[in-house]
From TrEMBL:
The keyword Signal applies. The keyword Signal applies. It comes from the Bacteria. The lineage of its organism: Bacteria, Pseudomonadati, Bacteroidota, Flavobacteriia, Flavobacteriales. This is Lipocalin-like domain-containing protein. Residues 1-19 form the signal peptide. Keywords: Signal.
Length: 137
């Protein structure tokens, strides 16, 4: 699973390199209230002694957190500083949230899908596998 997270970060780095001046649609980031907060694994689940966070949702942003919040990559800021990601879309309902970002060339995209299980659990639908995340705060 850590390989999936590292691949996700690498995709951000790849998308982050561009000299294009295309405009950015940062109004895409509107996570629904039910998903806002920090999601990951509690220390008792991982056995590491500290919580491992993977996603932080706010009212206008989605951040990828790794290595216990040591590395933070936020989508809104990435699109503002990297015009290579120029368009995106999101779909949300009372129990699901999906966001897709499309590169200027239209060939590469990143899609994240989440499903609500309860007020304290969500499922990250990641490349065909379901990863259960707990609300950390």
């Amino acid at each position: 699973m850590k390989k999936n997270i590292l691949l996700f970060i690498i995709s951000f780095i790849f998308f982050g390199c561009s000299s294009s001046d295309e405009s950015v649609n940062s109004s895409v980031y509107n996570p629904p209230a039910w998903i806002q907060g920090t999601w990951g694994f509690k220390a008792t689940t991982t056995g590491t002694g500290q919580d491992e966070s993977y996603f932080k949702f706010t009212s206008n942003n989605l951040c990828q957190l790794t290595f216990g919040d040591i590395i933070t990559t936020c989508w809104k800021e990435m699109t503002e500083v990297s015009p290579k990601i120029y368009s995106g879309s999101e779909n949300s309902s009372s129990d699901s949230y999906e966001i897709k970002l499309i590169a200027v060339d239209g060939i590469q995209s990143v899609t994240l899908k989440f499903k609500k299980v309860s007020t304290t659990k969500i499922i990250w639908v990641n490349s065909g596998s379901n990863i259960e995340l707990e609300k950390l705060n």
